Every structure is written in structure tokens, then in C-alpha cells.
From TrEMBL:
Gene this chain is encoded by: SLC16A2
Pfam name, any one: MFS_1
Organism whose genome encodes this protein: Patagioenas fasciata monilis
Matching SUPFAM superfamilies: MFS general substrate transporter
Record's protein name: Monocarboxylate transporter 10
UniProt KW keywords: Cell membrane, Membrane, Signal, Transmembrane, Transmembrane helix
Described function: Sodium- and proton-independent thyroid hormones and aromatic acids transporter. Mediates both uptake and efflux of 3,5,3'-triiodothyronine (T3) and 3,5,3',5'-tetraiodothyronine (T4) with high affinity, suggesting a role in the homeostasis of thyroid hormone levels. Plays an important role in homeostasis of aromatic amino acids.
Ranges annotated as spanning the membrane: 43-69, 90-110, 144-167, 174-196, 202-224, 271-287, 307-325, 337-356, 362-386, 398-416, 428-450
Amino acid sequence: MFALTLLWAVAQEQAALLATQLMEMLPACCKQREANLPPEGGFGWVVVFAAAWCNGSIFGIHNSFGIIYMMLQSDLGDGEKDPALEFKTAWVGSLAMGMIFFCSPIVSIFTDRLGCRTTAAMGATIAFIGLLSSSFTKSLEVRYFTYGILFGCGSSFAFQPSLVILGHYFKRRLGLANGIVSGSSCLISVPLPFFLKMVGKAIGLAHTFQVLSALMFIQIFLCLTYRPILPPSCDSQHGGQDKLGSRSVRQQCWSQTRKYFNLRIFRRKTYRIWAFGIATAVLGYLVPFMNLVKYVEKRFQETKKDWILLVCIGAMSGLGRLISGRIGDCIPGLKKIYLQVVSFLLLGILCMMIPQCRGFEGVIVICLFLGLCDGFFTTIMAPIAFELVGPMQASQAIGYLMGLMAVPMTAGTPIAGYLNDYFGNYDAAFYFAGVPPIIGSLVLSVVPLVHQRMLKKQRLDSGKDKMLVSETTVNGELLPGCPASEARM
């Protein structure tokens, strides 16, 4: 009896001690969990400003290439007219824009391994070097490398981390932050064509490249604000390293490849159709941006107000980006794709209407709607990726999509330049630019229908439904752009 009483007393003492320890641990766990949540503001607004500057400076320069395009042709000299000059010059801007998308899958890997801050600063530095070195040469072939490759690659490495870092500071307000970044970036891209037109005449192309390089030089320092605040799970990392240590070199290489290149998203039929539709639609996407200024000069002899076209496109694109995010939030599921369907369909029709304009004012009206379509397509792309593959796989899904867009987007403008040289006018180029967006919109309209059919099959087979749910939630414990080495800083 005495022994039972003693055991009961010891058990009560141990239970009380364990309860005390648990009560002490709970506040610490709650504080740690609260510390890992995005602050939904604070220093995050400084990051939003830096990301907006990045978007505005990069895409402002790329979208204003119509002005640089004319300056490049003038810089090459009009004395010896090359019949393929339009085609050759178009490759400079086309390469730069294409490299942004071509490098995106690689940039996502660098962002996960090195972090947003290091990757973005490295990209801004490369872009700065590319623009600055473009001012020291008059060779078109050299500018293929300095402007097309260096500036294009640097832009890609600087741009993508500016989107990823927002997830570290915003969750509930992430849509608002993305809308502000996309919309406010037009504060730079809207007046930039007018600025380039004025500065180009005053100081020439070489010094204009130097002025543009200053925008990327500022971006180098703004990238230092991309400090990740959500730490990764170190235990899962070490556990993965211990498991890899027991495998062969070939198994380790394949495991690392599958870890950083998530190819499972291509198993989804809806994602494959969506990616193919987008890649098809962007074949003629850049043709209006590159050729409108030169077109109105030849067609309407308008040289003093031609910059208004790019300003109209930039302003309406910013408005479209601000309102499309809100509209997309009101549309459930994959029905958001219909916004892209309408955008591409209108884009194709508007491109074909440009040669039918009888006055400069008609081209301005078309440019307003072109900018609106651009804003809707750009902003709604990320929410659709989240709906298709889930939040944990959306980062690389966007990266792969932009990589697939690289080839048609790069080839579209040189093809239009070749048509300009062959026919001696821009009509065929604009008709060509209108066909791919219309075809792409028809392909995209199939995605919600295929998705509904897949849902019906899943309801018939609950086992498949469970497998799909588990597949969307498993993608590691690391938030993109937050490596262990940078999270501790």
C-alpha cells in the first residue's frame, strides 16, 4: 500500500513537471510561428518600391525599344542602305526580350539556391554592364551580345526575384502588393519613350545607353532590400543530405535534378495545353511594340508625336494591371483563363486593324486597347499558374512557361522585320502579328473544358483524387528565394 502511494505521488509530480514544461514551450512556439508569418507591411513596402522600380526600369526600356530601334538604324548610317536592315536591327531588341523568358527556368534555380537578394543584385549588375558596354560600339553584331544577351539575361535575373520576394512580406495582401508593383512600374515606363525621344536627339544613341544604364545601377542598390524573413526548415535539409550520402553518384545527381527541376507539372494535361497556347499566342506579341513608331513615321509622316503611341500603351497597360488582379479575384477557379482568351483575341484583331487606320488618331485608339490587353494578360498569368499546379509548384511552373515563350517571342520580331524588307511596308507584318494571338486564344479556351472533364473523372475515382491532392501539396518545405545561408543574415 505504501509503495502504491509512493508511485502515485511520483507520477503526479512528473505529470505536473511535464505540464509546466509544455506551458513554457507553447508561448515560445507561438512566438516562433508568429515570427515566421509575413508582416503584411512595414519594411515590406520598401521592398514593394524596389520591386516596382525593377519592373518599371526593365520593361520600360524593353517596351520603348521602338525608339531605340529607330536610333539604331540612324546610327548605322543611311548612306549605304542595307535591304535587310530592318530584319537585322530587329534582332537586337528581340534577343533582349527573348532572353528574359529563356533564362527564367534557370533564374528560378539560382533564386532558390542563392536567394532573391544575391540573384537580383547579380542580374542588375549584368544588365548595367550590358547597357553601358552598348554605348562604346557601333557594331550591330556586338550589340547583339551587349544589349541582346547581357542586358536580356541581366533583366531576367533581376526581374524574377522581385516577384518572389513579395511572398516573404505579404500573404493576405499579396495580390495588392503585386498590383502595386505591376501598376506603379508604369510611372517609369510611361514617360520613358518621351524621355528617350528627347534625349536621343540631344545627346545621341551612345550617351542614351549610358543614361539608361544609370537606371540599372540604381537597381543594384535597391536589390539589397530583398532580405528574406521566413527561415527554411534546416532539419529537412540535413535529413535530405544524410539520405543522399547513402546513394550512388548517379542517384544523387538525379535526385538533385528532380529536386530543383520540378518536371511533375508537365504531367498535368491542363498545364501543357495552357503553356502551348501561351507560347503560340506570343509569336507576334512584340511586333506592335517594335514597329509602331517606325510605321507611323512612314505612313503618316508623323515624327513629333510618335512617342505618344508607346506612352498610351504603357499607361493603359498599367491601368489593366491594376484592375485585372481585382477582377481575377472575383472569377473562381480556372475561369480566369477566359480573361487571357479575350485579351489575346482582341490583341490579334487590333494588330490586324492597324494597317486599316486612315489617320494617326486611329492608331492611338488601337494603342490604348493594346496596352489594356497587355496588362490583363501579364497580371493574370500568375493566378492561373496557382490554380493549375498549386501554390508550392507555381514558381517553377511560371519559369517553365516563360522559358517556352522565349523561342516564339524572340522569333516573332525578326520575322516581321523580314516581311517589312520583302514587301516594302509594314502591313504584312501587322497581319502576321495578329494570327498567333487568335490561334492561342482558341487553344486557351479549351483548358477550362478539359479541367471540368478531369474533375468528373476524379469524382468517379476517389483514389486518384487523393493522389492528386497529395501531389499538389508536396514540394519541399523551402520558400523560394530563402536559402539557409541567407535566412540567417
